[in-house]
Amino acid sequence: xxxxxxxxxxxxxxxxxxxxxxxxxxxxxxxxxxxxxxxxxxxxxxxxxxxxxxxxxxxxxxxxxxxxxxxxxxxxxxxxxxxxxxxxxxxxxxxxxxxxxxxxxxxxx
Amino acid sequence: xxxxxxxxxxxxxxxxxxxxxxxxxxxxxxxxxxxxxxxxxxxxxxxxxxxxxxxxxxxxxxxxxxxxxxxxxxxxxxxxxxxxxxxxxxxxxxxxxxxxxxxxxxxxxxxxxxxxxxxxxxxxxxxxxxxxxxxxxxxxxxxxxxxxxxxxxxxxxxxxxxxxxxxxxxxxxxxxxxxxxxxxxxxxxxxxxxxxxxxxxxxxxxxxxxxxxxxxxxxxxxxxxxxxxxxxxxxxxxxxxxxxxxxxxxxxxxxxxxxxxxxxxxxxxxxxxxxxxxxxxxxxxxxxxxxxxxxxxxxxxxxxxxxxxxxxxxxxxxxxxxxxxxxxxxxxxxxxxxxxxxxxxxxxxxxxxxxxxxxxxxxxxxxxxxxxxxxxxxxxxxxxxxxxxxxxxxxxxxxxxxxxxxxxxxxxxxxxxxxxxxxxxxxxxxxxxxxxxxxxxxxxxxxxxxxxxxxxxxxxxxxxxxxxxxxxxxxxxxxxxxxxxxxxxxxxxxxxxxxxxxxxxxxxxxxxxxxxxxxxxxxxxxxxxxxxxxxxxxxxxxxxxxxxxxxxxxxxxxxxxxxxxxxxxxxxxxxxxxxxxxxxxxxxxxxxxxxxxxxxxxxxxxxxxxxxxxxxxxxxxxxxxxxxxxxxxxxxxxxxxxxxxxxxxxxxxxxxxxxxxxxxxxxxxxxxxxxxxxxxxxxxxxxxxxxxxxxxxxxxxxxxxxxxxxxxxxxxxxxxxxxxxxxxxxxxxxxxxxxxxxxxxxxxxxxxxxxxxxxxxxxxxxxxxxxxxxxxxxxxxxxxxxxxxxxxxxxxxxxxxxxxxxxxxxxxxxxxxxxxxxxxxxxxxxxxxxxxxxxxxxxxxxxxxxxxxxxxxxxxxxxxxxxxxxxxxxxxxxxx
Lengths: 109, 880
Description:
The complex is a heterodimer of chains A (109) and B (880).
Chain A: H1 8-20, H2 26-36, H3 43-56, E1 59-63, E2 76-80, H4 82-99, H5 103-108
Antiparallel strand pairs in A: 1-2
Chain B: H1 8-18, H2 21-42, H3 44-65, H4 69-77, H5 79-96, H6 98-127, E1 138-144, H7 155-161, E2 170-174, E3 179-180, E4 183-185, E5 188-190, E6 193-196, H8 201-205, E7 211-212, E8 227-230, H9 232-239, E9 249-252, E10 257-264, E11 277-279, E12 289-293, H10 300-316, E13 326-331, H11 332-337, H12 341-372, H13 374-382, H14 387-423, H15 441-462, H16 465-474, H17 483-518, E14 529-536, H18 544-559, E15 564-570, E16 583-584, E17 587-588, E18 602-607, H19 611-615, E19 619-622, E20 636-640, H20 641-647, E21 657-659, E22 667-674, E23 689-692, E24 703-709, H21 717-727, E25 731-738, H22 739-745, H23 749-793, H24 798-827, H25 843-869, H26 873-878
Parallel strand pairs in B: 6-11, 8-10, 18-23, 20-22
Antiparallel strand pairs in B: 1-12, 1-13, 2-12, 3-6, 4-5, 4-9, 7-10, 8-11, 9-10, 14-24, 14-25, 15-24, 16-18, 17-21, 19-22, 20-23, 21-22
Helix pairs in contact in B: 1-2, 1-3, 2-3, 5-14, 6-12, 6-14, 6-15, 12-15, 12-17, 12-23, 14-15, 14-16, 17-23, 17-24, 17-25, 18-21, 23-24, 23-25, 24-25
């Protein structure tokens, strides 16, 4: 049985969450995508995809402590589940397999 | 450091949109964090603005796509959302073809708008119940003697009948046709028609007042205050619906009476038709017809017999019995709408046909569009759209056009409905109801629904699924249609031609009627004659001789106006109908008493010495009237040719004598014979007895005067008004109009209106049918371009090719025209009551319509054809 794959935006978001580790919540993910992947993602899309992946079982959430700069609201942290990790790995492998050997051509292209 | 909070409303929006509390907590927290940062760096306004934008954006995203994938899939397969997708697509594709869309919507709007307006007018006038209790149980009954002459009853006799008959428990009296007399409200002269009714009239009808009250039994008692009830239409038009109209007074100068307005009748109570106000006559003075409420357990026939029996009893007690022998019974709704029904039916049928042709046309446009778009459709099919789905696209396209046109049509109809009451001829009753219904939403929706059904269903029927599929499969470089689709398009055009022929045929018959009516030999001059009516305040006159000298004085004043040739009093304004003037049954000297009875009642006219000269009626034998034919001279009469031929076919009528039942047992010597005229009725000549006005006067409703001028009489009103005002203050000019105007507002109005409407509808239908034909010919030629090109290359001459294609068009048109003529000849019976000296199958009209329709069709076909055969064959073949 082949593992489930994820879409491109899901892929990017999952990678950002892995990079951020325990500090992955909405704002930090958004900044990570902007700084590192140079991708501007609308908040609507980001939150929607996050919720979708929670429902799919790719992500776990945990609520942090309420803080005053958040108007007394808690942060909602995200972390990959095993199925999430599996899906990310499968998608990554597919991408890499296709990338293999093409880098030189595409870079020059 | 004081921190500001993000907008509460936006936060609430988020909570509502996101749903899950945990997700909301995290997202709202994130946004608040960002809000605080922006607050310190950019200020409150920027922070709040950004928060709002983010919140709305997130809300939209979560609410529109924020369902899980499986739910989305379910929604997509949902029919409704599929339809929505389809609608969006239809809207887009219609927007991409603005020419087509605008044309289709315009044609359908025209059809829906006019037919909605006409249907609504028909409904208001003919179908809305009269504002009375059980209208079907109210009967109008006219007694007649064996010659057919009416035997009216006086109010006293009618009141005796009330409560005495089993079949007709409630009885009242009314004039069958309103009369007219000068009235004023304050200083304002009003031109209004009255009807005499008995005091029980409104009780018998079971009507309720719109304002004030209606008549009560005691209003008819002798010595009671004179009162009147005005019609709703009069209240609107003459009194601007003023609530304080009750208590005002109408003054009738002629009768030296004043009528206090006690109430306003309900809207739509137009009985007798054309009435503006109802008044009560004295108990013995006025002859009336019977209107009565029928017992539910009986029939009109039985009710009529009972009335006849009772009336014969009453009649036998009279000094001079009239011997009624039969009774004509009509139900109230027929009495009110009956006369206008042919006109209403014809216009309604014509507008329904116009709607039909508009639908056919738009359906044809849709079909052609389908062919033009076949390549686009092939792509859609290749992308996975099922042929059923594509067919649904057609239906939706038709539906969208239909619904948009329905909305616009409703606007058009509302506009037309405000105009209609003002252009409707006098025969149409109850026009005040037309605009009162407001926008006819229900009718518009129904019409739109039917039109949409036609427009949407026809093309999908035509290009039925397999057809579309076949067309799609073949759609390559030569976008061509299947034989089936082509046949359907042809049938559509043939149907349009047929409908156009039907409407044109009606228009043709009415035009010929109008022509005949216009070309009639009237027997008098209609040009350069004006007819005026004078109001006279008789209260200040001492007696008949003073009235006579006053009138002679006015005639002299009028004669003195430059441009006036001659002046004569006449009995009443023209076209009152033969019933509208005083009639008598003459006794002819030398005949037994039975003989003249065959002549029933002959209308009387009275006039001065210049009457024949003024009206231009020729004196065929003997003489006209002289200045000396006065009170003190022997009685003289002039009779019309028809009477002379009837009474003395072999002898000279001049010098013969007749006796008239005028309550005076006197002989009148015939001194002359005048030509027959159509002065009382246009459609046939009325045999007439003329008497000198100085020897015979009845108290007229208004003093009517004919004036002959040496030029167009339109200059007359102002010098006449001056002359009359300067002569005597007791007399005033009430109405004035040329004989031509009387003719065109009176007997010519209904045929002209019907003819105009039908011509307009007919030309529109012709134009649409021609456009439809042009469309399919253009398409057919386009489809055949390659074939034509090859044939040309093979040596066929352009002429041969043209004839070929033209024959094709001719066949379609001829089929439609034949069908149309067949239907038209059957349907023209509907028109028969409106026609005059034209048969419903008039050969001239048949020929004319055929020539017009074939000519226009050939023209419509020729243009695309020329284009096709002038194409260079090499160019066509190179395209391969």
